[in-house]
Design goal:
Blueprint: H1 8-23, H2 28-37, H3 44-53, H4 77-106
Helix pairs in contact: 1-2
Amino acid sequence: MKRRRYDAATKEAILETVKKTRSGGGTFAGAFEAAKLAGYKGSPAGLYQMVYNSKGAGKKRGRKKAAAKPVAETSTASSVVADIAALVNRAVKAGLEAAIHALEALK
């Protein structure tokens, strides 16, 4: 089936007619009849797709994306190893200094 194309003025007139009818509280069936008077030659489903896919259609349906949850920082094995190495290094230095002072006191 050949696809019907409307020129820009006709399409704009159709969309504007549907928008005015719907915003005035009319049903989609009423908007379809008004669109036919404005030059629309398709089915109600085709009109719905034309309106829905137009830029002025408003918000798209569907789920809204949830906000990303902050991720807690994970401690890496290298930082834990570095902390342990520093602790051992301080303990060894303190022990060596105590031994050196004890030996110097014996002189």
